[in-house]
Every structure is written in structure tokens, then in C-alpha cells.
Specification:
Length: 314
């Protein structure tokens, strides 16, 4: 006996084994048959997870999706490959694949989605378009995950209502990171919304965010601004088209479109329950004004400001 205890064949990889496998720079290292199988099994959910995450964007026309599909295919090929043969160099190949995937994620996925896990992203479009809840730049990962996994729109509103202090802090942190000279005045007014909410001035906070949104959208050209402000879904049945925009743009402006639901106070239109710019301005009421809507208004303003901060030339 050598004193070494053999791992059961069906046991997972130990911490020491994972550390050894993580040495991508050691091209001479060979894997045992057991390690090949377990690494392949570990890769399988990764491939599935990446593919599912990408499925929410399959209709987006950006050329980057072609590259992502290639990465997924390469991952699948490596997973199959290492179950069939021992490769001395597969570590560096896998490193290249994951680096490519990581670089893509950094360029396209929201920074506030880091570490977020959701069983499905199928409801993402409805959260953005129908409920008007921003998920780009804010809120933080824990709240994003809770919103994505919530069972209903009312459950998501309850999450915003119960975690409003955390969300307001998330918005404040993003706003303090905005430094484009042309946005500093708007940023300071947005921080005014933060302070108003914290001081318990919910109604002024919502009124300010609704009007500030109008000002911020002036940074868009006329055609785009008109499109994100033209929400005539009740009359036409036509919703904001995610396919017409790049991923980050879509995530940023879909809630803006929702916030511009057509509303005519003089026509006795039903006051919307979701945060709505027109109802906030023209139909001050308990149905429209609430802490939840005030927080969503701040989220919308913060998300749009951060978008412009990353896109405007300096």
C-alpha cells in the first residue's frame, strides 16, 4: 500500500485536481481517463448555460452573435473531444475559447449581471418592454437575479419595493461614475432624485425623474428619440422591437419606451400603474405616484445616463 486513497470513479474532481487542471500554461500535462470524463461533464452545463443565455438574443442582427455561436460550437467540440482522447494541449485551447467568450461578455453584457444566475431568460423581454424595469447598468447583481427569477410582474414590483434602499444605492454608485462633461448637470439632478428618495420625498423624486428623462433624451437624434417615445401599443398592438437595436441599446431603451405609454388625461385614459412619463406629468395620482415607481424612474434615468456616458464622444 502506498497510503494514497483512490477516489471513487464516480466522485467529482477534488480541489487539488481542479487546481492542477487550471494550470493552462502546462501543455505537457496529460489527463487521466477519469479526469477527461469529469471535465467533460463539468463543461456540459457551461455549454448549455451559455447557449441559453445567448438564446435571448438570437434575433439580434449584430455580427457578434455569429462569433458567439462559433464559440459555443467550439466548446461543444472540446467537450466531446476530451471524452474520447487525452490531449496534451487542450488546456491552452480551452483557455483561448473562454478568453474569447469572456471578451465578448465584457463588450456586450451588462456589467451589473456579473455572477447572476437565472434558470431562464425567456421573460427578459417582458420585464423590459411590458413592465419597464431597467436591467442595464442598474440594479446590482443580487437584485437583477431576484427580478429575473421572480414568478410575476407583481412579485418584481414587490422586490423593488422591499429593496428600494439597495437599488437607490446602486443607482448612486453608477451616477458617481458618470463623468462626461455634457452629462454632469443631468447627473447632478439624478443624484437629487437619490437624495429625495432617501429623505422620504417620494413624489418630488418621481416628478423630477420623469421630467429629467425628457431632458436626457435630447442627446438622441430626432428619429431615435421619436421611436423610443412612441409607445402606441394600446392603439396599434406594436411593441418596442428589440431586433432593431444592439443588445445594450435594447436593454437601455426598452424601459424608456414603456415609460412613454400613450396617455391622454383629457380623454379620460386609464392611469397606468407602471412608471409612466405622461401620467407622472399630466395625471398626478396615488395610482401613478408611489415609491416603487419613483425608484423605477430613477433606475431608468440612471441607465440612460450611463449609456450616454459610454457612447458619447469626448
Amino acid at each position: 500500500m502506498t497510503g494514497q486513497i483512490d477516489e471513487p470513479d464516480d466522485a467529482g474532481l477534488s480541489e487539488d485536481e481542479w487546481r492542477r487542471l487550471a494550470r493552462f500554461d502546462d501543455a505537457s500535462m496529460q489527463l487521466t481517463e477519469r479526469e477527461n470524463r469529469l471535465v467533460a461533464e463539468a463543461l456540459a452545463p457551461v455549454i448549455s448555460r451559455v447557449a441559453e443565455a445567448m438564446s435571448i438574443m438570437t434575433d439580434f442582427p449584430a455580427p457578434a452573435w455569429v462569433a458567439v455561436q462559433d464559440v459555443i460550437q467550439r466548446l461543444a467540440e472540446y467537450s466531446t473531444f476530451i471524452t474520447e482522447t487525452v490531449s496534451q494541449n487542450f488546456q491552452s485551447n480551452l483557455r483561448d475559447v473562454f478568453e474569447a467568450l469572456g471578451n465578448f461578455a465584457k463588450r456586450n453584457f451588462p456589467e451589473n449581471w456579473g455572477g447572476v444566475y437565472a434558470p431562464s431568460f425567456k421573460g427578459l423581454g417582458s420585464i423590459l418592454i411590458d413592465e419597464g424595469i431597467p436591467l442595464m447598468w442598474v440594479p446590482g447583481p443580487k437584485v437583477v437575479e431576484s427580478l429575473l427569477t421572480a414568478e410575476s410582474a407583481s412579485a418584481r414590483r414587490r422586490i423593488i419595493g422591499s429593496r428600494w434602499k439597495r437599488i437607490v444605492s446602486d443607482c448612486e454608485a453608477v451616477l458617481h461614475g458618470i463623468d462626461h462633461p455634457k452629462l454632469l448637470g443631468d447627473r447632478d439632478f439624478a443624484l437629487g432624485c437619490v437624495n429625495a428618495l432617501r429623505d422620504g420625498h417620494v413624489n418630488p423624486a418621481q416628478a423630477l425623474s420623469a421630467n429629467l428623462l425628457d431632458t436626457i433624451l435630447l442627446h438622441l437624434n430626432d428619429d431615435i428619440r421619436k421611436s423610443v417615445r412612441s409607445n402606441h401599443f394600446k392603439q396599434s398592438g406594436v411593441k418596442f422591437d428589440l431586433d432593431e437595436h444592439e443588445f445594450r441599446t435594447a436593454l437601455t431603451f426598452a424601459p424608456v419606451w414603456c415609460a412613454h405609454v400613450k396617455f391622454k388625461a383629457d380623454k379620460k385614459d386609464t392611469i397606468p400603474r407602471v412608471f409612466a412619463r405622461h401620467a407622472s406629468v399630466h395625471a398626478v395620482s396615488r395610482k401613478q405616484y408611489s415609491r416603487i415607481n419613483a425608484v423605477i424612474g430613477l433606475m431608468v434615468v440612471t441607465s440612460v445616463l450611463k449609456f450616454f456616458d459610454t457612447q458619447m464622444s469626448r
